[in-house]
Amino acid sequence: MGNNDEWLWRSAVKWLARRPTNGPMGAHAPGSTRAISGQIITAMLIAAISGCLFWLVEIYAQGLRDPRYLDGWLLAGGMGLQLLFHVATKSGRLSPKSCMRWRTFHIFVGYLLVAAFLSHSNFSLPKSGFGWALWAGFAIVTLSGLFGTYLAWSLKTKGRVDERIGYDRIPSRIAELAQDVKAVVAMPDPPADAIALPAAPYDAWIIDLYTNHLKDFFEGPRNTSSHLVASQHPLKRLIDEINHLAPYVDAQGQEKLSRIWNLVTEKDRLDFARVHFGLTRAWLFVHVPVTYGLLVLSVLHVLVVYSYSSGTL
Amino acid sequence: MWRFFWPQESESPKPPSFRRDRLALLVALVAAASTFAAFFLSKGTHFLMPGPLTSAHASIENCSSCHSKSGGGKLSWIHGLVAGDPIADSKACMTCHKMPATAFFPHDASPDVLIASTKRLTKIAATTPEPLSARAQNAAFPAHDVVSRGLTCATCHQAHQGTNFNLSKISNEQCRSCHVMKFDSFDGNHPQFENYPFDRRTRIIYDHASHFDKHFPEVAKKEKAKRIPEACSTCHDSQKDRRIMSVAPFEKTCSGCHLDQITGKERATGPKGIAFLALPGLDLQTLKKRNAAIGEWPDASEAELTPFMKVMISRNEKGRALIKTVDRLNLQDLTNATDVQIAAVKDLIWEIKRLLYALISGKASDVLGDLNIGNGGKKLSASLVADLTASIPRDVIISAQQQWLHNLAREITGGPVTTDPQPIANNHEQSNASTTAAEEPSAPDAPQPPAEKEVPSEKASGPKYDPPACLMRVLGQCLMSAGQEKKAENADPAKSNEGKANRSAGSLPEPMRAGLQDARPAGSSQAGSEKATNQSDDLLHPTDEELREMKSRSRDGTRAPQSREVLSQPDNASAPQTTTAPVNGIESNVDPESWAEYGGWYRQDYAIFYRPVGHKDKFIYSWLSLTGPEAPKGDRSPATAVFDFLTNKNAQGACTKCHSVDDIQGKGRAVNFSPPSTDTKLGRFTNFIHEPHFGVTQNRGCLTCHSLGKNRTYLKSYEQGNPHAFTSNFGAVSKDLCQTCHATNKVRQDCLTCHKYHVNGVITPIMNTKIQMP
Fold first, then answer.
1. How far apart are the first and last CA of chain B?
2. CA B346, CA B280: separation in Å to the nearest integer?
3. What is the mean pLDDT of each run of 10 residues along chain B (774 residues)?
4. Chain B 356-415, CB below 8 Å of chain A: which residues?
């Protein structure tokens, strides 16, 4: 029991030791508090600017002008800014830091554009086919953008992805882990070999653990659906299996289990990273092409509006 | 650049964005292609419509009906991108919605009105706190930029917002953006009313206070049978026209007491009729002394030149000059008149004769048609002439002419019937003057034969006269047929003057030929007299004087010829010629004025009168309407004379006793005959409807809002012509009174509750459906 308690304690310390830097928002760390404050400030700033936008549009309309021209051009200007980010990233000249700043700004402007779009559509659904096309385009771009933003936030807050690992390196890294765990399990017990005693029964237990649970887990990407919803149940199940075995093995066996424990969590993080890196790439396949389509429709929209304007501005 | 969007294939490993960018470009192309496909497959350019039109406009199918630059083709809408007239589309709106020329000014009001209103409100605004939002709006997006470009319809009326969209919706803040007076709500800093709802005096002069306190009680006391109004609703009604608290018709309200004032029954002094045509009394002695060859003229006349005759004589430049000269003269005392004035009087006499001649020989419209007043030089319409003359029968004028100017026809064609031009032997000048008088017909200033128009040839005038030809018509009766005329000529061919007249008469219109035949043998006259007893025109009832003359003619059949002989005597050159053919043998003790108590024409002394037939008399109405715009107060024009004559305090018809007279700036005056209507409300910014308020007036009824004031100088304001300088019978309605209901969380108080934007109204005319002609 004493060994077992020590192992658990060490595991817990290890686990918690990683949380502050990558922990969830609820963690009571100075960094997370700053993050929460920053997010609140950002949200308040977005709300305030949106409010100002609505008020500006309102007084513009009160001044006997067509407010759709004002919020329309604000929307078009914002979309232009967003497009600049796309151009900048494609140019490949941005440093990773600049790219991160651009992306933050891109997300911020995106939220404001939602407000501008709501104003431009007069808080109502479109009344024509062309209007629906525009509305649907903007809605898809916005929703895909929000999804991407959520992914970014999710990855950051859950802290289970080492962003230094590229998406393309994950399969090879998983294969390495599979080899590692296999090596750990197969590692002989040196004292037992020296005195030629029969193998301790708990070696067989670790091999059973590997055969029944770990082998399949390490063979390739697993638990995709659970990672999509950020569930840690599969990991917890494996950890439990390891923990249940730990009290019954000797110190060397505990050392093995400890290494296996590390490899399992590493593998789980890689699975999680693979799913989220995949999603990050996938949503852009919606976000960017639809943006292009929306751009074309928006240009047509502006042409039509000015062709049929009846003297209002 | 192209490679930026469409990366080139290469052997090297493709970046993750490679496929994505290609897909993006593909999606953009598909979006564009789909849009164009949908556009070209849809009907017309409806695909581009941002939304359905409101139900009132739903039937409009062509975009170009409203969007003037869009054209009819699939791609012609691109023309709209070219800058053009910013109000072109708004002008298209006016194809169906008729608006005044000031449509693109705020409220459709003229700049003058807007400037005046702004000036007035600026003073109030200086003391009124301005809401912060209004200040911000005005600073960020001042509305005057928009207004200065001209307000288009789409500024407020946004189409394509759906079938059930309210196109007239406009917010209080939008209203406020233009106004110098900026306030938050009606129960907030909305300015106090200024003498609302009165912006002018009432058109009908009706002193409520004196009627309630004095007249009604008196009538109720004296004549209990008469109906006295019991409530406001007896006379007032808002049912027919929601904006107007209209007054019930005259017949249902005022006529009980005031009808007799119109017809003249209650008139104690002066004639009850309006003198239309008259032979003015002249100072014949002076005229004779001054050798003014005026021909025959009754010396017993004391009549004055009627204003109507002044207008008729003034229908040309010469007549106007003439009237201007004689207007200051007392025609019955010309002793101090200058030679020029005497000459003018003489010309006037001849003008009067020509006028009478023209009225007999032609149609009234020939004389009145070109009056050249109030119609921009255009001829007056036949119906207006009929109203202006109250359809006076020609026989009335003929009979008057025969009574007054027996030899009118001869004089018009041959000059003055007089042998008077006796020169005073020892006076050279007078001798010359008499010579001139003798040669009057050919002298430059002598009465000229009527113009071709006035004396139509037989051929020209032929169609004007009813067959069979009647050579002598008196008082509506044909006294002599064509055959009789020949007999008359044969019977007395020797008299040179008569022969001359008869020769001339051959070219005269039939009625005048009849006049010339007046001097036939007594037998003929007698026959005519007998026929005259069967006359059907009751209006031609002879005067007492006529009856006496008829009797004397009956007794002495040779008097008529003698009368003509008298004319030829020098001393009687200007003597009155009142002898006439016998017209009616029926005795009557009813004088003509009384006989015409129901209105119409009658003749008395040397004037033809018209007695009003009752309320809305067309004769008076038409003359007032015609002359009013040409009759500024204090003017001395003939039109003003007519207007003043018909609107003075003692005028027959007493129209202006109740109908007020307004000065119209630069346009004379106008009698307010028309009751207030929505048209009279045009230009007003408030839009009050009585009906919804009846439910909240409780026991005090109309007095809840309209407090009847005692001792107000209501009537005094009608002593002058400015309708906006007045004192109302009732107190003004205060804002506080309205505010008891129209307040926050109570009755609505937005601007459009009481105000309307298009103050001059918008009319949607019926469609111009052209009649198919074969």
1. 69
2. 12
3. 51 65 86 88 85 90 86 83 84 88 90 91 90 91 85 89 89 91 91 89 93 92 85 82 81 89 86 94 92 90 92 88 90 91 92 91 80 69 89 91 90 71 36 34 40 36 37 45 43 40 42 38 39 41 52 44 35 40 68 89 93 94 92 90 93 93 90 84 85 84 89 91 92 92 92 90 75 79
4. none
Distance in angstroms (rounded) separating the CA atoms of residues B126 and B116: 16
pLDDT, tens digit (0-9, with 9 covering 90-100), for A223-236: 888 888 878 899 99
Q: Write phi, then psi, for B617 (nearest 5 degrees).
A: -65, 125
Does A306 contact B66 at a Cβ distance shorter than 8 Å?
Answer: no
State whether residue B471 is helix, strand or coil. strand
For testing contact with chain A, the best of B5, B22, B23 (most A CBs within 10 A): B23
- Tracing tokens 């009168």 back to the chain, one arrives at B609
Q: What pLDDT does B12 receive?
A: 57
Report the distance separating Cα A171 and Cα A267, nearest Å.
10
* B739 close to B186: Cβ distance less than 8 angstroms: yes
| Spatial distance between the Cα atoms of B313 and B358, rounded to a whole number of angstroms | 11
pLDDT band at A115 (very low <50, low <70, confident <90, very high): very high
In the numeric block, the tokens 């009394």 are attached to B281
Q: Does A295 touch chain B (CB under 8 A)?
A: yes
Give alpha helix (H) positions in B265-306.
284-289
**DSSP for residue B280:** B
Are the Cβ atoms of A306 and B49 closer than 8 angstroms? no
User: What span, in angstroms and rounded, lies between the C-alpha atoms of B88 and B79?
Assistant: 13
Per-residue confidence (pLDDT) for residue B275, from 0 to 100: 95
Most confident of A92-106, A129-143, B662-676: A129-143
pLDDT the model gives residue B201: 92
Q: Which of B77, B88, B140 sits opposite A59 (nearest CB)?
A: B140
Residues of chain A contacting residue B106, judged by C-beta atoms under 8 Å apart: none
From A66, A293, A307, residue closest to B28, measured CB to CB: A293
- The full DSSP string for chain A is -HHHHHHHHHHHHHHHHHHHHH--TTS--HHHHHHHHHHHHHHHHHHHHHHHHHHHHHHHHHTTS-HHHHHHHHHHHHHHHHHHHHHHHHHT-S-HHHHHHHHHHHHHHHHHHHHHHHHHTTTS---SHHHHHHHHHHHHHHHHHHHHHHHHHHHHHH----TTS-GGGHHHHHHHHHHHHHHHHH---HHHHHHTPPPPHHHHHHHHHIIIIIHHHHHS---HHHHHTT--HHHHHHHHHHHHHGGGS-HHHHHHHHHHHHHHHHHHHHHHHHHHHHHHHHHHHHHHHHHHHHHHHHHHHHHHHHHS--S--
Q: What local confidence, expressed as pLDDT, does residue B317 receive?
A: 86
Specify the DSSP element, H or E, that contains B718.
none
Choosing among B39, B48, B81, which should be mutated to test the A contact, i.e. which has the most A CBs within 10 A? B48
| Interchain contact, A308 vs B70, CB within 8 Å | yes
pLDDT of residue B3: 52
> What does the pLDDT look like over A265-290, one tens digit per residue?
989 988 888 888 888 888 888 898 99
Domain boundaries of chain B, sorted by first residue? 1-41, 274-608
pLDDT of residue A119: 96
Is the C-alpha dihedral spanning B113, B118, B146, A74 positive or negative? Answer: negative
- Tell me the residue type at B695: G
**For residues B712 and B213, what is the distance between their CA atoms, to the nearest angstrom?**
13
What pairing do the DSSP bridges indicate for beta strands B274-278 and B470-474? unpaired
3-state secondary structure of B669: strand
